[in-house]
Amino acid sequence: MLKVTIDMYSGKPNPEFSITDKNAAEGILKEIALNKGVMTDADAPNQNQSGLGYRGINISLESDYLPQFFALPESFGLANGYSMLESKGSEIVEKLLHNFSNYSDGIESNFESNLNKWVISQMKNIPFKKFPSGNKLKPFELEDINPTCPYEKVTFEPNFWNNSEHIRKNNCYNFASNRRTDSYAQPGRAVGQMYNQITCNEVTRGAIADGCSRTDNCFTEEEIPRFLMALVIAPGPEFSDYHWYRQCIDGNWAHKPGSTPARLTDNSGRIITEPSIADRGPYTEFCGYMLCPKSTKIY
Fold it and tell me: How far is CA 84 from CA 51, 56, 77, 157, 250, in A?
């Protein structure tokens, strides 16, 4: 009946759950239909909504009659900071998140209940903890800050990633490796060696299994193009995810936060001259740099 997606991750697939109980689904839609100002367009994400961390709630009506009966679009966004009735939208979503596990026979979920409080706090505009300027890099990262191996830089081409056919099927790892697979790629999955947990070492291990390398291991010209990527981690415990950046031809960096548009700016709207000091929201751990050669396989 209803599919609810929490738009919050960049690397991992977003958490979502389905409400198949007819009365529960129609009760939610009735309240939304009486307050249509709570909705935003889920199919045309605003650049300002495309930062790292919580970005809003997307609802899809998976039924032939529901859109017509309630005069609602087939999919729309809620509680993302851009609706006309934002407080009412947040109220509806908070009620939905508090009660989703209570719908009898109505829930299929990969949304962990312990994330409820975190999502609600972000929805109420409690700011993310900003990246602290005094953070120190780990010893193995210090070697990677100034890569000595040759690599290529390409022009930032957002239209290749941001069109409606591909934008929601490709994430930060697709963008950083410059491979539009439409599979929401995960480090290591292509070769059966996907990361086991969200840590710098584990996600790096998965990328190396795919064919990437630390920047102290050079690739020959046969591997052109070789892209320079940077990895960061949101360490949890409530929010745990990874995110990748790629350097562009002008020396600045671009990224694609999850299923949202590729962009050149950080969470504060500033051009990313160096990802280690950019505003990355909850992605507070900087893991270092890697090279992605032509032979890399991702899925």
Answer: 21, 14, 12, 32, 38
Q: In this structure, are residues 181 and 174 in contact, taking their beta carbons and an 8 Å threshold?
A: yes
Indicate the SS3 state at residue 174.
helix
Distances (CA, A) of 172 to 77, 124, 164, 227, 295: 21, 26, 17, 14, 19
- Edge to edge, the sheet with strand 285-292 lists 213-214, 285-292, 227-235, 240-247, 253-254
Give pLDDT tens digits for 8-57.
Answer: 999 999 988 888 888 888 999 999 999 999 998 865 444 445 689 999 89
Give the span between the Cα atoms of 179 and 122, in whole angstroms.
31
- Give the predicted TM-score (pTM) of the model: 0.85
Distance (Å, rounded) from C-alpha 51 to C-alpha 47? Answer: 8
Is the distance from CB of 67 to CB of 16 less than 8 angstroms? no
